[in-house]
From TrEMBL:
<keyword id="KW-0067">ATP-binding</keyword>
<dbReference type="InterPro" id="IPR027417">
    <property type="entry name" value="P-loop_NTPase"/>
</dbReference>
<dbReference type="GO" id="GO:0016887">
    <property type="term" value="F:ATP hydrolysis activity"/>
</dbReference>
<feature type="domain" description="ABC transporter">
    <location>
        <begin position="2"/>
        <end position="235"/>
    </location>
</feature>
<dbReference type="InterPro" id="IPR017871">
    <property type="entry name" value="ABC_transporter-like_CS"/>
</dbReference>
<dbReference type="Pfam" id="PF00005">
    <property type="entry name" value="ABC_tran"/>
</dbReference>
<comment type="similarity">
    <text>Belongs to the ABC transporter superfamily.</text>
</comment>
<dbReference type="InterPro" id="IPR050086">
    <property type="entry name" value="MetN_ABC_transporter-like"/>
</dbReference>
<keyword id="KW-0813">Transport</keyword>
<dbReference type="InterPro" id="IPR030679">
    <property type="entry name" value="ABC_ATPase_HisP-typ"/>
</dbReference>
<dbReference type="InterPro" id="IPR003593">
    <property type="entry name" value="AAA+_ATPase"/>
</dbReference>
<dbReference type="InterPro" id="IPR003439">
    <property type="entry name" value="ABC_transporter-like_ATP-bd"/>
</dbReference>
<dbReference type="GO" id="GO:0015424">
    <property type="term" value="F:ABC-type amino acid transporter activity"/>
</dbReference>
<keyword id="KW-0547">Nucleotide-binding</keyword>
<dbReference type="GO" id="GO:0005524">
    <property type="term" value="F:ATP binding"/>
</dbReference>
<protein>
    <submittedName>
        <fullName>Amino acid ABC transporter ATP-binding protein</fullName>
    </submittedName>
</protein>
Length: 242
């Protein structure tokens, strides 16, 4: 579904991703791990066409990010949620949710509202449809952001450290939701530093460092074999667990 082919991404003289390739064709959850500053966010942003690439190509459902006219479809296929979410402050939750389906997909208001309520219930926030941004906790805002991405019915959700700005309690509520979505079979690419969560939900684990893929393994291989056999991964797992 997503084919990243030998891409290079630079910011000025800094090469963030070098001759980088990876495919995501399976359903289920892929977790992307790695130290800060190694290009994890950049990779997700390139897939979504939010960043240009210097060389190589990325295909999403066969459509290249290099063609401007494909970007709309690519972004519809890949719903993205970031570390912190800003809902439109002058709109309530329900209005925030129906905006894109109505504007981008031409869904009728009544139908969009029905879908919005369906996804609000899915993220456990049916009671918050009238709330505004400043009346929601950080965890609730992130769950709304997930509902807002899902209502567009994307093929995959790209989630970039969506719990890292939350206190532990709220983080848990968002991670629980992601576990539930994972067990529903939602395809997700998740950048996270939450290792026990990663181990619980990931089918596949990628480890990035210095703009390269150091490991690409099944959950079992990553957290059992590589944890003991790969010195770099052992160090990372130990460091992050402290
Ligand atoms: N817009 C930008 N302009 C310049 N440098 C950037 C920009 N975005 C990210 N970088 C740099 O690219 C590298 C990778 O960043 P990022 O993909 O955000 O890493 P990660 O998500 O793994 O922490 C970092 O060194 C970061 O400082
Ligand atoms: Mg990042």
């Amino acid at each position: 579904m997503i084919e990243v082919k030998n891409i290079t991404k630079r910011y000025g003289s800094l090469t963030v991703l070098r001759d980088f390739s990876v495919d995501f064709d399976e359903s289920g959850v892929t977790v992307i791990l790695g130290p800060s500053g190694t290009g994890k966010s950049t990779l997700l942003r390139c897939i979504n066409g939010l960043e240009s690439i210097e060389t190589g190509d990325i295909l999403v459902n066969g459509l290249s990010v290099l063609e401007k006219r494909n970007l709309r479809s690519i972004r519809l296929n890949c719903g993205m949620v970031f570390q912190s979410t800003i809902l439109f402050p002058h709109l309530n939750v329900l209005e925030n949710l129906i905006l894109s389906p109505m504007k981008l997909l031409g869904v009728k208001r009544s139908e969009a509202e029905e879908q919005a309520r369906y996804y609000l219930a899915k993220v456990g926030l049916a009671s918050k449809e009238e709330a505004r941004h400043n009346e929601l906790s950080g965890g609730e805002q992130q769950r709304i952001a997930i509902a807002r991405a899902m209502i567009m019915n994307p093929k995959a959700l790209l989630l970039d450290e969506i719990t890292s700005a939350l206190d532990p309690e709220m983080s848990v509520e968002v991670l629980r939701l992601l576990e539930k979505l994972a067990s529903d079979g939602v395809t997700m690419l998740i950048v996270t530093h939450e290792l026990s969560f990663a181990q619980k939900v990931a089918r596949r684990v990628l480890f990035l460092e210095g703009g390269s893929l150091i490991a690409d393994a099944s959950n079992e291989v990553f957290f059992n074999d590589l944890k003991f056999n790969n010195e770099r991964i052992a160090r990372f797992l130990q460091h992050i667990n402290q």
